[in-house]
């Protein structure tokens, strides 16, 4: 990047500044130079450039800012402002090259997606300071060597460097660095230096606007900075008083002014803090503000400005609100954190919850953070109720499910009508509610109510530590649960009842395909909770929160329970940051048919396990058959039954080797079909079956069919799965069928809870110690007390 002063061949208007970047020149006097450059010159310029003129698929009429983060993905024109703390190193002398490279990569990715990217960057002063310090040290060392005649140099003092001189020395080097980085992504960059006067002179404003539009049209990234080499001190004018008045005192105000002038969709301000806090960052009670609305600044206390740069957070907020008033959405985020700086810009554009989002539209209901706090507070109140009161709430909810049956089914009908043609048949079946389903739900809820009488506060262990010092271990709620479920509205009252029984606060995030059903079921749940004043303990998240953003609320959520497809569970397990996830990613259930299996039992068990509800996670996916059963009447009966039920058969490698004309060979032995499809494989023994299950299974549910009790017990003891059955359908792996009343899910993990997770799986413990002025020093070698550690009887609670 360089500037030349010579007679412009295009406009013939005498000597003036022309800006050059790579192989393309722009006249700053007449920036829309295509209107006055001769056609031959236009052809000549285009022959120099290899930058493609692309058609951008993104389009948006500028006028109002985006109301929600999820809309940011539609932003076409974006300004990224890099604060001094982002661009410079910690010693404030030199550039943070790693961060800059990452930022350039992200900007390049968005530019190549068809967006129009602009950078407002600091860093010239820091880069110039590094260069000037180097020159001064070199000069001083040479002079000292000449005059002292000594082999060693005295300690040299570096004079205070004037900022304008540093900027003059650093601007060219900073731009050269940017240009070299962008070239790696086949993107051209152009530098523009401005001062406050350029925005107050109407002709210069039009020139600047035209230049920027021309650069963007040619797929070039403008890199804008205040011309700190000549910039005068900020004028004490009426700053930020309206859309047309803002003084460019720093790069925050420059970025805001540029964003409004260019009618950009999004301004991203990167600094060295995560965003805007409700109190100074680092204080004990400081909370990151997710969404900031005009007028909220009165309730915010601003801290000191960052270690470098002209402005602080207050200046950023003022600039952001000014840009928001001009129709540009704004996000302030951290561009220095090593764990997020590599994707912070792209995350913001994708609508992820990063930094503070400025919006003019306040949501109708509470934010998800506020819902989390309400669930925490409501859950604690719920835990203090008597067991009979919690049971009463659940009984009332069960009654409402049957009393309000017509309203529930009407809402469900709306969901089914909207999902028709969009959801596969198995998912539609999960989405559907019926009178029989509601009756079964009510029965299950009453079972939960009955079992909740002796749940919270149950004494598990009592120990006399010493005289008058007794210890108890008691059951308590986990805290706040986040349950994410797809296409399963019947899941909502089940999970809510379990949370109520265990005294847990609950956040529910249902699929949008069941929005009508979920809404009425949640209203009924809150109606039941209201009878004892704990309505807020169960919250339904209706905002546009992405699941990944919910999984980051580690200070509000204690356990995540996903209910849905294996892909959903995997995504949540990957996204959860510091929050335990209870669940299973796959339900690859096996049934081993032993050589001593009963002919009458096998077909019934296979049919029920595979065909009764093939979309369920506890449906059979792989049938293992002892090789002695091949070409026997039993084997033929199994195959005939599967054909009648229209089950598509996939042959395992061993099974395929026995057949002349085999079904399609299985692509993977680790497949959860979730449909009328089944893998059949041949094994040589019960040990071979166990080895196969351990290698290809998901530790969910596995079954043996045999009349040999010794073989069955061997299988039950050696298969390492959450549920292991003998002569029973895989479909029994269910909380309701286990007598748990309902389940929040089936866990294949090995910590805390395993298998169908009911009420007990939603409890943890705490220790209660009751003493009489006991101190540890009394139990020292020369102390007056000795440890007893006597086990005491556990009192029986009245559960009638």
TrEMBL record:
Tell me which residues make up the Aspartate/glutamate/uridylate kinase domain: 76-334
Family matches, as CDD domains: AAK_P5CS_ProBA (cd04256), ALDH_F18-19_ProA-GPR (cd07079)
Please, one GO biological process term? L-proline biosynthetic process
Q: Which residues form a coiled coil?
A: none
Q: Which reaction does it catalyse?
A: L-glutamate 5-semialdehyde + phosphate + NADP(+) = L-glutamyl 5-phosphate + NADPH + H(+); L-glutamate + ATP = L-glutamyl 5-phosphate + ADP
- Where do the Aldehyde dehydrogenase domain residues begin and end? 368-630
Gene3D superfamilies linked to this entry: Acetylglutamate kinase-like, Aldehyde Dehydrogenase, Chain A, domain 1, Aldehyde Dehydrogenase, Chain A, domain 2
The reply to whether Cytoplasm figures as a keyword in the UniProt entry is no
The UniProt entry's GO CC annotations, sorted and at most eight, read:
mitochondrial matrix
Which terms does the record give in the GO molecular function aspect? Answer: ATP binding; glutamate 5-kinase activity; glutamate-5-semialdehyde dehydrogenase activity
Matching Pfam families, A to Z?
AA_kinase, Aldedh
Q: Per its UniProt record, what PROSITE patterns does this chain match?
A: GLUTAMATE_5_KINASE, PROA
Q: Tell me which InterPro entries the record gives.
A: AceGlu_kinase-like_sf, Ald_DH/histidinol_DH, Ald_DH_C, Ald_DH_N, Aldehyde_DH_dom, Asp/Glu/Uridylate_kinase, G-glutamylP_reductase_CS, G5K_ProBA
Q: What is its EC number?
A: 2.7.2.11, 1.2.1.41
Q: Quote the subcellular location field of this record.
A: Mitochondrion matrix
Q: Which keywords belong to this entry?
A: Amino-acid biosynthesis, ATP-binding, Kinase, Mitochondrion, Multifunctional enzyme, NADP, Nucleotide-binding, Oxidoreductase, Proline biosynthesis, Transferase
Which pathway is recorded for this entry?
A: Amino-acid biosynthesis; L-proline biosynthesis; L-glutamate 5-semialdehyde from L-glutamate: step 1/2; Amino-acid biosynthesis; L-proline biosynthesis; L-glutamate 5-semialdehyde from L-glutamate: step 2/2
Assembly: Can form homodimers/multimers.
Q: What does this protein do?
A: Bifunctional enzyme that converts glutamate to glutamate 5-semialdehyde, an intermediate in the biosynthesis of proline, ornithine and arginine.
Protein family membership: In the N-terminal section; belongs to the glutamate 5-kinase family. In the C-terminal section; belongs to the gamma-glutamyl phosphate reductase family.
NCBIfam families the UniProt entry points to: P5CS (TIGR01092), PRK00197.1 (NF001221), proA (TIGR00407)
Q: What is this protein called?
A: Delta-1-pyrroline-5-carboxylate synthase
